[in-house]
Amino acid sequence: MVFDLDLIKKVYANMPVRVAAARQALGRPLTLSEKILYSHLWEGVTIGDYARGKDYVDFAPDRVAMQDATAQMALLQFDTTGRKKVAVPSTVHCDHLIVAKQEGKADLNKAVTDNEEVYNFLSSISNKYGIGFWKPGAGIIHQVVLENYAFPGGMMIGTDSHTVNAGGLGMVAIGVGGADACDVMAGLSWELLMPKLIGIKLKGKLNGWTSPKDVILKVAGILTVKGGTNAIVEYFGEGATSMSCTGKGTICNMGAEIGATTSTFGYDESMSRYLKATGRAAVADAADAIKEHLTGDPEVYANPEKYFDRVIEIDLSELEPHLNGPFTPDLATPISQMKEAAAKNNWPTKVEVGLIGSCTNSSYEDISRAVSLARQVAQKGLKTKAEFTITPGSEQVRYTIERDGFLDTFSQIGATVFANACGPCIGMWDRMGAEKQERNTIVHSFNRNFAKRADGNPNTLAFVASPELVTALAIAGDLTFNPLTDTLINEKGEQVKLDPPAGDELPAKGFAVEDAGYQAPAADGSGVVVDVKSDSKRLQLLYPFAAWEGTDLKDLRLLIKAKGKCTTDHISMAGPWLKFRGHLDNISNNMLIGAVNYFNEKTDNVKNQLTGEYGPVPATQRAYKAAGIGTMVIGDENYGEGSSREHAAMEPRHLGVRVVLVKSFARIHETNLKKQGMLALTFANKEDYNLVQEDDRIDVIGLPSFTPGKPLQIVLHHVDGTSHTIEANHSYNQQQIEWFKAGGALNVIRSQAQK
Ligand code: MIC
Ligand code: SF4
Q1: Is 160 in the pocket of ligand 2 (CB under 6 A)?
Q2: Are the CB atoms for 400 and 511 separated by under 8 Å?
Q3: How far is the CA of 567 from the centre of ligand 2 (A)?
Q4: pLDDT (mean) for 397-401
Q5: pLDDT value at position 753?
Q6: Could you tell me the distance, in angstroms and rounded to a whole number, from the CA of residue 422 to the centre of ligand 2?
Q7: Region 502-508: what's the mean pLDDT?
Q8: Is residue 165 lining ligand 2, measured as CB closer than 6 Å?
Q9: What confidence tens digit (pLDDT) does each residue in 269-286 have?
């Protein structure tokens, strides 16, 4: 089935004219990213040479995707906009709420019972507003989108940071908070800071043990977790075209880990093959007809330095398999250096569990290459040393790999196949013994490896690698095993070497599936009733946040000065907390519980300035709220890195935090804070972070004349009677200042709807 073919044809019909107009306006050849951006400008926005990294521009994305853990908040917000139907094709995917414990079927059944209220809510609200609904078990949002909805040259947004996965099919696909999705579904434009452009030229060809995952692991090592902020990464070169479409998806997927706005690849044969294999020959034909517009201009790729803000070159023929981690996805170690790195850092080298799959790496190609290693276990008389698990990305992939005997082979090495869902990748892993908090090592083919993320144990060291390398390391049970050079001792005491992985890009017999898990919305959903019980623990209707009081903010207290890495996992933990994603007050009990307090190096332990006592962050903040006192959060670099979850912005908003002042922000989180009516500020002088003391009372000055580009003043009144006045920058444009004044973007939309 091809979804929304008319929409795709419409985009393609407009594209040549718009691309030509942009080329003329800019007076130069265009990158693919520019072609897609300029052909998706909001109606009435002039095609002009927008300053990258400076100008906000309004766009018209073609579609919206949401996953269950973020869709609840996005749709609770949409429900208050008074719209009858979504303005652009939109989908909901139930993938985040399934706990991996026993195996796929049993875990899925349990999830369906445990989450009945939430699934019913999502299914009925989707039905009401014309949204396609993918049931639990259908698969992970980004795989389902790649298989069904992504199309070359398209632009989409999704309420998940790994929406960027669709760049593998030549889209500009961007992760956003629910409030952004709500705007687009309500028929409004979507604003984005015109991204900078990073070009990555891939030379040579992947071979042997190296896979697309290693490209992005290497890139993460070069660019670090913030190097892609406010930039689109565009890949090109012979190495790009020689790689599979799903491999490109993997690379784009993990672009989220370098903070990139998105990543993309030009349309090529691999994409055409993938579209055809997934039942979308009509899309491939339509793309072929305008293919020169679906890739960068040849002049750009011939002289990339002239057109990109930064160019990186990677020779795939020489690229080594990498392992990134622990605790951060940009700590990249080539496998040949792992022995040394592990010894130096005292990382436990025994691999306890190898986990493959997830939205990053569960294509047919990935699984077929991993299975080629699993087969060698029996062939070479080996025994798998570590536990091994698989989370397929979609029911279509699961069904096909079962049909082709892959799951059988995996079960012979003792593997557990979990449900087609996020599972261990997002802490929905009921791992036996995790509560003992033992120091241990796992390797996985996911994308993130922040502390506690997979199993809640802060002492689990997680390393990210390709599915092939994960499988080899699980067989060896050893983090330092280099399959390119090392041998293993088999059950007979012989030394054996693993042959390099080999697999098929696409299934020779084609994909198959019995029930993909899709539920189409009612043609007319106006009669559908969406029920949210007032005593529900999992769902809560939203109330409008209060508007700004019109004055400077005086006498705020410091809630926490967070030290070091503070990702959205630290601000609003997932795992066991995912069940409260539709209930703002309940989920607020996890606010900042993972952040390290600068003053005592502890997590979830801050000083309550009213009593002088130390206590958990959420309870302390609730005490300030009860006393009617506003607070401030201080943060370090790349604050809010990681996910798109707007709960990390809504919880502080709900509990009465007024300002988040940090050294630098991750893009999605900064926008989420603005959307919810918070003040998101950065230190003009990063050293000023050191001036903030635990008992400070803080003023924010300059709000009555809050203007784009004009810094605000922060006065830190210290307990000894001295004070410091420092400057805080902000990146609010006029529209965003209106959100702040109104108490949140939703209040602005609502007031417009009432006019
Ligand atoms: C993640 O990978 O962290 C998540 C869970 O998919 C998040 C979304 C969420 O928190 O619901 C993301 O990446 O945006
Ligand atoms: Fe799910 Fe993990 Fe992918 Fe996020 S990164 S969508 S949690 S599989």
Answers
A1: yes
A2: yes
A3: 15
A4: 98
A5: 67
A6: 5
A7: 98
A8: no
A9: 999 999 999 999 999 999
